[in-house]
Write a structure and sequence with these properties.
With 360 residues, the chain is of the alpha/beta class. The protein is 36% helix and 21% strand. Strands 3-4-2-1-7-9-10-8 form an eight-stranded mixed beta sheet, sandwiched between helices. Helix 2 (45-55) packs across helix 5 (97-116), helix 3 (58-74) runs antiparallel to helix 4 (81-92) and helix 7 (136-147) packs across helix 8 (174-184). The chain starts with a strand and ends in a 7-residue tail after the last helix.
Length: 360
């Protein structure tokens, strides 16, 4: 039994066919996001819905409608999309911001359920929130009952029912819904389909030709997510880990291509990942690794050449010839560099030359 979650890029007019090709008789639950961006300058559905809630601008709502009309027309889905959109607009600004922002997932799930000939299970009925957080036991019970006896079900991610009405996870929360569904149905595998080849050593948008980490542990994936990797929501890991359900992160364009399997087994790679975040006007680069202190400090010192002072376990300031200050802090399995400009591409190339990154 398999649970599959598809990101917004898979739920677009030209890509929905890839989703359908992946679904097999072994799949039990499919979780979908709102329609994603169709081109680089496009705006995500959830962002449009947020703008619509505050503005009430009919032109913004029309942009939302256009996405779902194209989704049904291009794929020949026989559903009354006019009725769906009319009902959604009537509710969009009536029940609060979180309700409005969740409508993308709701519409996607209803349309994809029709497309796959599957049962539609409303997320409000199976994902339960308390005043501040998810009610895990109640959610597991509701999901177990809802999916029992159903051959294939489709559910919208990102939201559920709270004490005071519909409530959402943080952005990217469809990953969490997928993990909860996998746990509730005791799936043997949780597939998380994106438009990249699993968990890459570095952001493929920032670094050309990056390698994929073929396997890693739940704790390593959690550390990577906290370090800035956006491939999987950090809160999606715990439900899968609790029930020992492996997570496969793959590319829906090429399901047989490189992918990452997250399980109880730790990675054998010395270098796991290099992630980058902008924090307080500076660049924070995190290196996750399986090296001892001597090895990782040699890597950092080798990269910066002679532009550093003595390294120690507590961190150091590294003064460059341009009077810019670099800092490096080491902790177990992690080194954090803080610089004034990006170093991730040069650092990745250095790590490749040092043969710390396996080439696919």
């Amino acid at each position: 039994m398999i649970t599959a979650k598809f990101g917004g890029t898979a739920v677009t007019p030209r890509n929905l066919v890839y989703l359908k090709k992946i679904i097999s008789p072994f799949h039990k639950v499919v979780v979908v996001s709102a329609v994603g961006k169709e081109f680089s300058s496009d705006v995500k559905t959830t962002d449009l819905l947020e703008k619509y809630f505050f503005s009430g601008d009919d032109n913004i709502w029309k942009a939302v409608e256009d996405k779902y009309r194209r989704l049904t027309e291009v794929n020949g889905i026989g559903i009354d999309v006019d009725e769906l959109l009319f009902g959604a607009k009537a509710r969009a600004r009536r029940y609060g911001l979180q309700y409005c922002m969740s409508l993308g997932e709701e519409l996607s799930a209803k349309i994809v359920a029709e497309y796959l000939g599957a049962a539609y299970v409303e997320a409000d009925e199976v994902v339960r929130f308390g005043v501040r957080s998810l009610l895990f036991k109640e959610t597991m019970s509701a999901m177990s009952n809802a999916y029992k006896g159903v051959k294939l079900a489709v559910t919208g991610g990102y939201y559920g029912m709270g004490k005071y009405g519909r409530q959402t996870f943080s952005r990217g929360g469809s990953d969490v819904t997928g993990a909860l569904c996998a746990a509730a149905t005791t799936s043997s595998l949780y597939e998380n389909w994106t438009d990249v080849y699993g968990v890459c050593v570095a952001d493929p948008v920032k670094v050309y030709g990056v390698s994929t980490i073929r396997s890693m542990s739940y704790s390593e994936m959690r550390a990577l997510s906290r370090g800035g990797a956006e491939v999987l929501h950090p809160s999606a890991i715990s439900p899968a880990e609790r029930f020992s359900i492996p997570i496969k992160i793959g590319n829906f364009y090429n399901p047989q291509g490189a992918s990452t399997l997250v399980s109880q087994c730790y990675s054998q790679n010395k270098l796991l990942s290099v992630t980058e975040q902008r924090v307080d006007g500076k660049i924070k680069t995190t290196i996750l690794h399986n090296m001892n202190f001597a090895e990782i400090s040699a890597v950092v010192s080798g990269f910066f050449g002679e532009r550093y002072s003595v390294l120690n376990c507590f961190g150091v300031s590294i003064n460059t010839e341009k009077n810019k200050t670099y800092s490096c802090v080491f902790s177990k399995n992690k080194a954090v560099l803080v610089t004034e400009s990006t170093v991730i591409e040069d650092l990745y190339k250095y790590l490749r030359r040092a043969e710390l990154i396996k080439v696919d």
